[in-house]
Protein: Beta-xylanase
Amino acid sequence: MRSSRTSVRACLAALLTAVGLFAAGTGTAHAADTPLRDLAAAKGKVIGTAVTGSKLTGTYGDLAGAQFSSLTPGNAMKWGTVEPTRGSFNWSEAGQIVAFAQAHHQQVRGHTLVWHSQNPSWLTNGSWTSAQLGSLLQNHIGTEVGRYKGKIAAWDVVNEPFNEDGTYRSTLWYDGLGSGYIASALTWAHAADPDAKLYINDYNVEGVNTKSTALYNLVKSLKAQGVPVDGVGLQAHLVLGQVPATLQQNIQRFADLGVDVAVTELDVRMALPADSTKLAQQAADFTSVVAACAAVARCVNVTVWGFTDSDSWVPSTFPGYGAATPYDENYAPKPAYHGIAEALGGTTTTPPPTGACTAAYSVRSQWNAGFTGQVTVSCSGASLSSWQVNWTYGAGQQITQAWNAACTQSGAAVSCRNASYNGSVPDGGSVTFGFNASWSGSNPVPTVSLG
Ligand code: G3I
Structure:
């Protein structure tokens, strides 16, 4: 069902993309008219992205500001970033992201206060008593949460506390303070900013499984003890085609505990190179995740972990894998972008930019009463087994001869079909045909469509 629907959509998209393109080398489609953040708002949801502060200018900044209603600093608020030397702080990137978010009326998800990774070496290499560790952690949380008090909608207070089997991960914090470090961290964060929503965030907890059940039991017990925990973050670093079937059920069971849920780090990685089939599957995966969140009232935010493939952790961490985000490396929206929009109730009238074939018309040479024209049919992320290119001349031009295509002209309307030998246009390939024609007065380039 999913694959036939997807392929129909892909074909329709390819046809629509071709319509109206002329003399264009590539079929760059525009993003859906309604930004994701507006679609999300209409559903009472927040859509976010992880960002790198230094990149928030130009197209990256434009898209981050226009499409998303929440930003998560990918690295800027981690302990190793903000206090690389003990007592010496660097808030520059964190502050930059908070300022950008405020200027664009966006929420900020603070990430992250207590983690086993990306801590400063002075901390990890130190030898601390339990009391010292507790005091270091309390000061860190108080300093960072206090600094941004009132400016952070939600904090990932505790990040990745569990092993896959549901036991607590051995970390600086667990080993030194016991599992009580989690309740302490939440309590200290609440004291520093009582209005911020406080989350526990982990990966591989998207579906109902041993690890997510451990998280569930922890949250249940914290709630029972009156510890200030407001939400769980499901990171959702997913593999193509592997959205857990129990995702919505899992979100719902946390919601039923009385906490909010956020999908905090969504990406869907695939083996490279990407192709139209994988990109269509990825779109379906993004749709599934966003739809699961949209279906549960207490699922408040879906955040992608980088919105462009040029700003993703995946290729360096999983060699040979990538293309995990909704925009490609050149900031063109991928089918995944449209998958998100669709799950948020957006229309699919605007076709995806990839998985498309396009036709480009150009005048190669021109003389007093005649000219030679050329049309190139190109495919990227899609392919054709036959083609027909149509256009209408606006200034009385008349085709006299064509090669590598069978062209007919009726009045101003021209239609050129593939020859017997060049109907096939492979993914990443192109076919060119030419023609001679007459003109007088002017010779404007017509709009061509591919059928
Ligand atoms: O800043 C240095 C730079 O100076 C240096 O030239 C460069 C060379 O490798 O490294 C830079 O640091 C990198 C840092 O990202 C900033 O780009 C680190 O090597 C790299 O390890 C670090 O990776 C981050 C990763 O967390 C570390 O575990 C990713 O950007 C970040 O997206 C990722 O995010 C985590 C979440 O916080 C928690 N959940 C999982 C997620 C993915 O790993």
Summary: The chain is about 35% helix and 25% strand. The radius of gyration is 27 Å. The pocket of G3I is lined by residues 74-75, 117-118, 159, 235, 265, 313 (CB under 6 Å).
